[in-house]
Amino acid sequence: MAADRLPPINYIREALDYDPTTGVFRWRERPLAHFSSADSHKRINGLVAGKVAGTMAHHFYIKIGLSVGRKARANQLHGAFARHD
Fold first, then answer.
1. Alpha helices, H only, 3-54
2. How buried is 82 (Cβ within 10 angstroms: 0-12 exposed, 13-18 middle, 19+ buried)?
């Protein structure tokens, strides 16, 4: 994923929960539309739903794989969870 090309905010919010107190992202149970098949939907949700999202990358950035071959740095995703009152 290009650094400036994040998925739509709705997609990010469907995929992740964010705790602003701890800065931790957790995987949500994602909808079928996020996957190429019902099998991968069931398998991936079974493996990661509720777990902490992301892995440590170089320079201590947390990278989160939002889809196959597409990763974003956690600090890029905070804006998707900012309140817009």
1. 9-15, 38-48
2. exposed
Is the pTM higher than 0.90? The answer reads no
Return the SS3 of 75: helix
Cα 35 to Cα 30, 50, 58, 62, 83, distances in angstroms: 9, 17, 28, 23, 28
Domain ranges of the chain: 9-81
Could you report how far apart the first and last alpha carbons of the chain are, in Å? 30
Over residues 14-45, the pLDDT tens digits come to 999 999 999 999 999 999 999 999 999 999 99
* 16 CB-contact burial (10 Å; exposed 0-12 / middle 13-18 / buried 19+): buried
Single-letter code of the amino acid located at 58:
H
The pLDDT tens digits of the residues spanning 41-77 come to 999 999 999 999 999 988 888 999 887 667 888 888 8
